[in-house]
Automatic annotation (TrEMBL):
It comes from Solidesulfovibrio aerotolerans. This is Cyclic nucleotide-binding domain-containing protein. Residues 149-218 form the HTH crp-type domain. Residues 15-100 form the Cyclic nucleotide-binding domain. Keywords: DNA-binding, Transcription, Transcription regulation. The keyword DNA-binding applies. GO terms for molecular function: DNA binding; DNA-binding transcription factor activity. Pfam families: cNMP_binding, HTH_Crp_2. CDD domains: CAP_ED (cd00038), HTH_CRP (cd00092). GO terms for cellular component: cytosol.
Length: 231
């Protein structure tokens, strides 16, 4: 990815969109591009947090590994999504693992370059804060779901969440495998398949491969324990 392409990518992000052209060019020029094959480790827990990262192409996941070796996926990252933003605020070690789900290109930025951009345009900080708050809410919802909801409720919540991230419409095309989705909702792939079957039998969704069509948003919201619904 050349300098012009990096600048176009950065300009498309809300928290960089208002930066002057010269600052954006310096930020893009300071980035290091790396390519990762599926399964490649981008960052490991306890790595030094001296940079923040941006997915340029492909998809990646943030995850933790428990003492028993089980893996819990925390977040799926697509093109244009940053991670390791804590490097800007406090440095320290990276709190999770990051790995590529498919062929993925990642841009790494020294934390000091983002700090300089934020000093020049404080709105950058507010946009980053909004992003962190959104992810915190999603993480809290995941913890609540894993602790309190049955598997069908967790799957219903995930489908609604993915639909809200898309371009509208009632069909969600899952960008990850059943195995990866099972790690997100805390289940085995077999149990996940049974949960989708139950939702389909209840008339809430229709499943065709990786395409999930939402037939009853209000019913899915009720299954996911969303009082106000997302219909």
């Amino acid at each position: 990815m050349d300098l012009t392409a990096r600048m176009v990518l950065l300009r498309s992000l809300p928290f960089f969109g208002g930066l002057p052209e010269a600052r954006l060019a310096r930020l893009a020029a300071g980035a290091t591009a790396s390519h990762f094959a599926p399964g490649g480790i981008i960052a490991a827990r306890d790595d030094s947090g001296e940079a923040f990262y941006l997915v340029a192409t492909g998809r990646a996941k943030l995850y933790q590994i428990g003492p028993d070796g089980r893996e819990q996926t925390l977040y799926i990252l697509g093109p244009g999504e940053p991670f390791c933003l804590c490097a800007l605020v406090e440095g320290g070690d990276f709190p999770a693992f990051a790995a590529a789900l498919e062929a993925t290109q990642v841009l790494a930025f020294p934390a000091r370059t983002l700090a300089a951009a934020a000093r020049e345009d404080p709105e950058v900080l507010f946009d980053l804060l909004r992003l962190m708050c959104r992810r915190l809410k999603e993480s809290m919802a995941m913890v609540e779901g894993l602790a309190l909801l049955p598997l069908t409720g967790r799957v219903a919540g995930f489908v609604l969440h993915e639909a809200s991230r898309g371009l509208g419409g009632d069909t969600v095309r899952l960008a990850i495998s059943h195995r990866e989705l099972a790690k997100i909702v805390g289940a085995t792939p077999e149990a996940l398949s049974r949960a989708f079957k139950k939702l389909a039998e209840a008339g809430l969704v229709a499943v065709q491969g990786r395409a999930v069509t939402l037939l009853d948003r209000a019913g899915l919201a009720a299954e996911a324990g969303l009082g106000g619904g997302e219909a």
